[in-house]
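Subject: for your reference before the review

Hello V.,

The reviewers asked for a structural picture of the protein, and I figured it would be easier to keep everything in one thread rather than splitting it across files. Below is the amino acid sequence we used in the manuscript, unchanged from the supplementary table.
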Amino acid sequence: METPAFLPADRLQALLELLTDDGYRCVGPRIRDGAVLYQTLDDADQLPRGVQVQQSPGRYRLEQTDSPRRFAWANGPQALKPLTFAPHEELWVGELQADGSLIFHDAVRQAEPVAVIGVRACDLAALSLQEQHFLQAAPDPYFRERRRQLLLIAVHCTHPSDTCFCAHTGDGPEARTGFDLSLYETDTGYFVTAGSPAGERLLARLPLEPGDAGRFDTACDEVHAAAARQTRDLPTGNLQADLFARLDHPRWQEVAERCLSCGNCTQVCPTCFCHSEQEVPDISGTRSSHQRQWDSCFSPGHSYIHGITLRQDTASRYRQWLTHKFGSWHSQYGRSGCVGCGRCIAWCPVGIDPTEELHAICTEVKAT
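And here is what came back from the structure prediction:
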């Protein structure tokens, strides 16, 4: 790979200004409520400096260091999903007319241009899966419009958490596709590469310097070392047959005794797309809106059909999530629905680790 051009750290503000001039709302990592969250950025100094994240099952903590780096952390609870698949939105409206008739029309779609800086490889892989669903399997105009207005600036990950296993799923820590620009971070700045025509145009306008080959090799080595430090993994191969061969495995009941059915794992998962829909009447009595919001296969309503809740206990709900995410996704989308981000492990209140559960269920299958 040819040595990319270099953007000194004190010129990162120039990138934000170019994006703002092009009409984008800039979004990037900021510290809020003890977590790294995607928030609107007005100034590069709002990016966290020297912050690292300690994650383990059921635990997420920020740690302040003396490092000058802005992106020396793995991930926060958010991914790109809220920016393309809104947690709550109005889909269409029904209105009562003066003559007593009803008219229905789509809700107004006005997606703003958004540029996100700091996107990780695992979340780019998750977005690709969401695109398969919302642009191909179940075409959604709301998702399509938001995705069309999104510009993505990736940062290759150098500081994986204990919960990360993106190297095993093949989705990181180096971002390979799906970005407009990518950044290799160093203590003094960023090596910048373009991944799309929009990224090429932006790259040509940045105040760059020639890149040093030795420093770039060191930056690449840090990313490769991040992959080597990941210790979690999954049973090898397509797990669909193994999981469906063990639907009565006692491990389902064992994990249900710990699981709270809170749905945290599905809410932080960057690929989950389950949602519910409902009619919301206006107090005037002349208007009603049809709205959707994120749902979870852990909620009782998710399996409610004609007066019956099919999955009435936690064991069946956890089994549904794991067999779908790691099993039947292969039939639907050609791969597992997991990108190895580890959020479900860190943000589970009781620290349930799906990689541990899958090994307990599927490794036994392979051994018999």
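For the response letter, the relevant points are probably these. The chain has 13 helices and 15 strands. The two ends are 46 Å apart (CA to CA).

Happy to draft the paragraph if you're swamped.

O.
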